[in-house]
Amino acid sequence: MKARQILVCAVFGAILVLFAAVLLLRPAQLVSEEERRPLARFQTYAGWKPTGGQEKTLSGYFSQLEQVCLDQFPARQRLRGLRSFAKFHLFFQRDAGGYYDVGGSIGKIDDTLSEAAVTDALGTLQKLDAGLFAEANRYYAVIPDKNYYLAAANGYPALDYDALFSMVDAALGGTCEKIDLAPLLTAESYYNTDPHWRQETILPVADAILQAMDAAPLASDVLWQTDTFSPFYGAYAGHSAIRVQPDALTLLHIPAFDDVTVYRMETNETASVYELSDFENVDPYDVYLGGAQALLRIENPAQTNGRELIVLRDSFASSLMPLMIPAYSEITLVDIRYVAPRMLEKLLTVTADTDVLYLYSATVLNSFGAFMR
């Protein structure tokens, strides 16, 4: 009996020494590509203290060391996957760290409607609507997140979407035309491993917006060619470590896109509608218009109607806007998460013939401080 106890202690001690040695000798990992975040790295107390914020005590330093050990732990990603597997299949929990799996599609529980956050976001849009865009043709649409279709229907808590939609209607409905997107989407419209919608499924969304604006051609009337890139593991797959089948990114394009110019107005650079090399980025969704950009101007020389569209948007618009390019001579995308709204008067030219679309996901509207001041 005593020999067995000694053996167990010796094996346990050897495992601790082995993992400690690997942790110390292995080069520090800088980024978790799965979680899409930088990892904590070891710093001496003297090096950490100037950046330690308010908690500059030894206790705060040791808390930071604990995070380093967690982030740099050997085989960390595999252990995260094992933990998620155990929660679902051994302990029969319905979620793992707030993420759940419905038939291979991952959702993230978000059941709290922050009326203050929504009011704050809508206040920013109202100021722009009454000022810079007051003479333009204005429209608005809210993009339901994947939870709208997955959560309540499968027994998971969900926020009060009707209340959120009503708040948006009350704020913008008096001056803008509403475009209702909720009936045009289903759970299958979204990637299984990511919160975004699939470009190949949102032709009805593009059609609804173009019809409301009396713009042509409709997206469904265009003869699209397709390219597919796989495997695509989205943000939810990395954050949750839930093992599901990967998605594929499908790009819809036409030969005329070769002559379309995308101007990155922040840097005065030009780009393409699809940046294929960005599929190798930490976020492969960046293939659509280069991902997060504060200001983009898309010029389409194939369309000579002279019509201009300005879209205040979040990341969902990156995959939607290519479907609307054939109908407009120029499209400007504005992301006020990255550019202060007060700067737009200096950057945009708005006339009575300009179409303006406020297009935001429910998730962004429900996030306090999402927009710059």
Summarize the SSE layout with pairings:
Elements: H1 2-25, E1 31-32, E2 37-38, H2 45-48, H3 58-72, H4 76-89, E3 99-102, E4 105-108, H5 115-130, E5 137-143, H6 147-150, H7 161-172, E6 177-178, H8 203-212, E7 225-232, H9 235-240, E8 247-253, E9 261-264, E10 269-271, E11 295-299, E12 308-313, H10 317-320, E13 330-334, H11 344-347, E14 355-361, H12 362-365
Parallel strand pairs: 5-6, 5-14, 12-13, 12-14
Antiparallel strand pairs: 1-2, 3-4, 7-8, 9-10, 9-11, 11-13
Number of strands: 14
Uncertain runs: none
Number of helices: 12
Distance between the termini: 69 Å
The coarse silhouette is globular
Instruction: Give the fraction of residues assigned to helices.
Output: 25-40%
H and E order: HEEHHHEEHEHHEHEHEEEEEHEHEH
Outline the biggest β-sheet. Answer: 8 strands, mixed
Q: What percent of residues are in strands?
A: 15-25%
Across the major sheet, the strand order is: 6-5-14-12-13-11-9-10
Mean pLDDT over all positions: 87
Q: Please identify the structural class as seen in this structure.
A: alpha/beta
